[in-house]
Amino acid sequence: xxxxxxxxxxxxxxxxxxxxxxxxxxxxxxxxxxxxxxxxxxxxxxxxxxxxxxxxxxxxxxxxxxxxxxxxxxxxxxxxxxxxxxxxxxxxxxxxxxxxxxxxxxxxxxxxxxxxxxxxxxxxxxxxxxxxxxxxxxxxxxxxxxxxxxxxxxxxxxxxxxxxxxxxxxxxxxxxxxxxxxxxxxxxxxxxxxxxxxxxxxxxxxxxxxxxxxxxxxxxxxxxxxxxxxxxxxxxxxxxxxxxxxxxxxxxxxxxxxxxxxxxxxxxxxxxxxxxxxxxxxxxxxxxxxxxxxxxxxxxxxxxxxxxxxxxxxxxxxxxxxxxxxxxxxxxxxxxxxxxxxxxxxxxxxxxxxxxxxxxxxxxxxxxxxxxxxxxxxxxxxxxxxxxxxxxxxxxxxxxxxxxxxxxxxxxxxxxxxxxxxxxxxxxxxxxxxxxxxxxxxxxxxxxxxxxxxxxxxxxxxxxxxxxxxxxxxxxxxxxxxxxxxxxxxxxxxxxxxxx
Length: 500
Description:
Elements: H1 2-48, E1 52-59, E2 65-74, E3 84-93, E4 105-115, E5 118-127, E6 130-141, E7 153-168, E8 171-188, E9 192-205, E10 210-222, H2 236-239, E11 248-262, E12 265-277, E13 284-298, E14 301-312, E15 320-329, E16 332-341, E17 345-352, H3 357-366, H4 375-378, H5 383-391, H6 398-407, E18 411-415, E19 430-437, E20 442-449, E21 459-467, E22 472-481, E23 489-496
Parallel strand pairs: 10-11
Antiparallel strand pairs: 1-2, 2-3, 3-4, 4-5, 5-6, 6-7, 7-8, 8-9, 9-10, 11-12, 12-13, 13-14, 14-15, 15-16, 16-17, 18-19, 19-20, 20-21, 21-22, 22-23
């Protein structure tokens, strides 16, 4: 009986002692060990991530495993202020006392990256100093990512993201990221704006990633020079590529009937180009852009672009260009053709009625004949142009121009046929008079041709051109012989000119 009583008493004492030890251990864990672990994790996060860690609750076996609840990483020093990471729970597994040396494996549940309105769910696993981050397909507004990009870059629209990032010693090591957007807008430093769709993949080592995919352009706006982006001559952009400095890039940029606008150019384009970059080189463009139509403003004259192309070559060669267009200056139709490279291009001008090159340049730039140019205006023409004028002076209709100004007309054209007729006599010239009225919207003409034979009446005609709109011109003409008994001929034309 006594033995039984002693046994029960001993058991009670042992039980109470165990409870006291457990309570003491719990107190020690709460008071010292968990606080010590929190301090260790705080130092670890500051060293590895340059961020502050917040832990809501800790529980578990301090020797082999711990569970952290409501974990948050905030105040990343190299990220925007609102950037943070949160996890509902973190399961830590480690060898005895390994947690004190930063050696542990971890499974994170309910993880998410938060930046402003952006919430990106993640699955994270950490094993042997290697961290794998997987994020499922997520749609987000691109404008919400503005603070994460260089201040020169702005994006709007919706995009889908998914992929995987592998960190080694908490440093990005491998990437596999997919980005898709059916309708997005991108601008760079207020000089380039692009509307279109994007399908990109970033893979390989983070230090030298492979970036490939395609971009379909719908609209393109360029406020600077049209060719400034051809070889990325402004290397400030390249210097800001950061981790892309050693990347390999191969992106198709295509589009049909792209609306392209620049300060002086409006055009419709077909694009078949590539953005390319090799390791240790700068990015460049290769391929061809066909210019279907459009308009080009120069010296207060708007040329209608009838065709052309831009051929981008390798990094060391300037793009080839060819561009054709026409415009109307008063009664003359001026044709322009640019051919060559961006660094060395040649402009060819021609006209209808035909004029010499310097006359066309004078008309094109100053809107008047060369003889009426001031000294300052003439300085803009080269010595070669002046020589051409002297050589062609007899064939440019200067006498007609002077006569037209003296009688208040805009144009007097005389056409001479210097070949003698059967009677060995030189025929009188055909004469055409022209005058702009109603603010140059209406151009009227009268012309007469000499009789071609003794018994043939001379031909006369009156005509007019009315510019109804910038795109539509109505032309009419009546022709008759000198005798009113002869039949008359009427002709009406409508001319359409579209600026795209």
